[in-house]
Protein 1
Amino acid sequence: MAQLEIKNVTRRIGDFVAVNDVSLNIEAGEFFTLLGPSGSGKTTLLRMIAGFDLPDAGQILLNGKDLADTSPEKRPLHTVFQSYALFPHMTVVENITFPLKMSRCPPEETRKRLQEALEQVRLTGKAEKYPHELSGGEKQRVALARGLINRPRLLLLDESLAALDAKLREEVQVELINLQRDVGITFIFVTHAQTEALALSHRIAVMNQGRVEQVDEPSKLYGFPRNRFVADFIGHINMIAAQVIESTHSHVRLAVPGLGEITAPSLPDASAGEQGTFSIRPEQVRIGMHDEPAELKNHFAGTVHSLLYQGDVSVYRVKLADGVMIEALLPNSTPGRAELFEVGDAVKVGWRHDAGMFLHG
Amino acid sequence: MYKGTRRRGMELWTAALAVYAFLYLPLAIVVAYSFNDSRLNAEWVGFTWHWYQVLLHDEDMLLAAGNSLFIALVSSSIATVLGTMAGIAIHRYDFKLLNFMVLTPVAMPEILLGVSLLLFFIQVLNLTLGMLSIVLAHITFSIGFVAIVVRVALAALDPSIFEAARDLGASQWQTFRHVTFPLILPGVVAGGLMAFTLSIDDFVITFFTAGAGVQTLPLRIYSMIKIAVTPEVNAVSTLLMLLTLTLILLASRFAPDFLKRQDVFKGKA
């Protein structure tokens, strides 16, 4: 039995179906992420787990027990809000010990846990400060310490890194992973930032229009998206309209107008004649002047249409026959740009027969 | 460049002084003549405490002042409790009618409120006009003011802190006691002081609801100036002014340090 079971949960707000028949199982000790664009229902789902909102249909079970009749303050879980929601009239210590005060924890125990918590989030020197005297990162750590101090079964994090600037966010991501591993508590993290989700999570549920599109480990989600939405939402991907010529247990052969044939890994339920999309990540596309890509199973000639130098990598957009555009990503492993293709250069692009995938629709 | 700036500075100062003079000169004159050694408010003769001594021995005046203080204390205390509750309810529930009902007395012309309260007390409640009717009337018009101030104080706060309190194990009551109330306390105190000052200097509504038996300070002053503005009126006005000023200073000093910071509000990190 999973620690948290979400069973066919639906939530309507007026005519809008915010969460539509969602079922998820979250295991104890997992770092689980709800990822989706704004309006996809991820925050509504989180609020229902926290108890601020109730499902119109379906159940949320914690260790097998339905939470429907448990008010927010009685649920053994805490939320770290996007705004951190620190109490402005309380010091760091008063904020962190608030849950213990509410549960009438003996002073001895409170002092001990407070000390641990302050050390854990490195706030010992800030104990008597008020929230307005803290930096964004420090506020976030106070919110984490406050959420963890009475050892809940679950910690819900609602866009908890969104308010931090990019540099700090990376640091905090590492801290968050370490913290979760140290405390061993289940984290349910809500975000719209896919790189954050990939970096932090054990498993990710991708949500779209109130539904769960796919639940998987980050690498599976990125490498084997189940549909066009997931493929497009996570990372960058090339998408080319294609028709199935032949589908076998080892591969599919696809016809692409203007390009000819592509061989791609098999998709069990693809049938000959089906119209769909061939998709491939830019970093799987090789690009070269000469014949190197030509040794690959799938290779095509084109011209460099544009290039984006991004420091660590360069992104080339190559125009193939019939106006098909494909993006190829080249790491700049030597100083400057690795290979100096310029706009207008004739190049070859290619990829391995086991790269890319056919998607329905 | 500097010259021009300086001249504009002078112009601004002159304009500002003129406005302040317009606002405060009449008050200053009232205060000054309360120390004037003459029966007439006509010309300055010399300094005296005489009118304050007269005041201290004017039993009717003392009684009226006592009544006013009593009414203001009782009505503002009750209005503060009820107004705070109304403010919280208006903030929490999207109930337009409640909002309308609580705030209408604030916008209603006083004369209208006075007349309708008079009719209500006499014809519906069959009440003998007196202390009780004045207190009830003052509570009625004060609640709205307190509710407005409390609602503004609540609206300025990040709404997720109340959810955070519940989430961290606080019951509804604990959330109110440890989070909501301390944060809106400055608003509650400001609203209470406002209700107090409104009550102590109210004339119109008190005039309609007082009946024959009870006299308040504003009613007493009014009945005195029907004959002539004596320096005794100046003296009592000065004391009333002093009291109001003290209350205003108290109200502004009360706001705790953390609430003077902008970034406390709306969850701005």
Note: Chain A has two domains: 4-232, 236-360.
Protein 2
Amino acid sequence: MSIVRTKEDAAPAEASPASATGWQAAVAGSFERLLRSRPTRPGETYGVPGQGETVVLSLVTIVAFVFVWWLVTALGLVKPLFVPSPQAILLKFVDVLTNGFTGTSLLAHAGISAARVFGAFLLACAVGVPLGLAMGMSPTIRGIFDPPIEFYRPIPPLAYLPLMIIWFGIGETSKVLLIFLSVFAPVALGAKSGVRSAAIEQIHAAYSFGASRWQVMRHVILPSALPEILTAMRIGIGFGWTTLVAAEMVAATKGLGYMVLTASQFLQTATVIMGIVVIAAIAYAFDMLMRFVERRLVPWKGRM
Amino acid sequence: MGLEIRDASVVYPAADGRAPVEALSRVDLTIRPGEFAVALGASGCGKSTLLNLIAGFLAPSSGDILLNGKPVAGPSADRSVVFQKHALLPWLNVVENVAFGLKLQGRPRAARQEVAEKFIGLLGLSGFETSPVYSLSGGMQQRVGIARALTSDPKLLLMDEPLGALDALTREKAQELILNIWHETQKSVFFITHSVEEALFMGTKLIVMSPRPGRIAHVFDLPFSKRFCDGQSARAIKASQDFIALREDVLAIIFADEEAA
């Protein structure tokens, strides 16, 4: 039955080139495709927005981007001062890896920056997750902590960097604290809203077995908040890397942010871009790790 | 003995400029040990409010709720609840979900395992002990919920539309399963549904509720679940003359109440 219908549907399309000229039919055909979509293949759901694989397209985009970048520099359309070639970045990477930058090896720069970001991140999670959960659970604690967090959250870290330095000096404290603050707000707010993910039936079921408030918190609310807490941590660490350069602006002698800023003052564009790529690579690798942890820890996410 | 509700009313306070809503008005109800009480009615007639009262999630505005002579003060393990959905914990597997109540009650691991195994067998879930609950079908998830509620050996089993989310065929099977378990364990049950056929088939006592204000409009005694437990087949009961006659009577009453309200 369906086979017969398919043939009937196809017939007018085959007939059309005979009645109209070829290009008119082609234009009409592509319009047709834009306006209404065909039935899906088995295994897909009809009409799901944006469904389909993207990996190949993403890889092609990256390759094309690097190719255009190389082409522009190879043809000498832009001066290396503004856009150094991809090879130059790679050579600079090897150079700094072997000889270091301002007397410090690349690994040491990356190491100290990672220590600042991850140190601040761990600290922010250790404080932010319990506080966020407490804010979700208790109107008293929410009432107290909501205003300060909501107040400072939208302020750019650069704006309060001077205050940090005035209060905590030019040592590690002010740097880690600056990153800590940028990670803390999203983590705490994520944990706070995560408290709401438990279905009321799950909570009622636990109480009807005679659970205490603490048991409901420990055995129902905390596990169901976990997906949202992990997402908040991923968002938080992103903010942490964003703040790194600001934190290493003042009185730093090591770190990727310091390297990028110093190189920019000496117009070493290749080092600037290389530093940016290294920061992006570390952040991306950590995000991959977090996604892996997410899959292992909350395989049930979104499935019930 | 059993559960006794005396002249209980629930009034939700005025909000957003609306007048106070009387969700339940002057409810009197007794559920004796071993009785299967089914509450039937359209949405908004206070069925769930009544269940929340019995479960101890809600305090009545006036009136008393007594279980074996003692007033109900908050939720407790002697009144387990089976919900329509969303009540299982997806981070636990089947046996952990079934044993969840016992864990909260601080029972040692070996004991919880033993009790959970027993009810997993009773509900026909053997072989799925370590499956994640989100991989089960709706009917099986509901059986996990029922097994979990039975583990704490409640005096009264509260079921809030437990079969409402199941497809019609699974639902019929689940009805028979619940009746068999009820017959075997001799529990008292308070069961909410809005399927007339399900209510007539399962209950020993039918409570027909009416909306605005929510109240108990009629109470019937039902013979059909006894017949099922005596060995008659479910379809034969549901197709019998007196079942069909009573079904039409009850439907007529419900529609008449709707018109009047």
Note: Residues 1-19 of chain A have pLDDT under 50 and may be disordered.
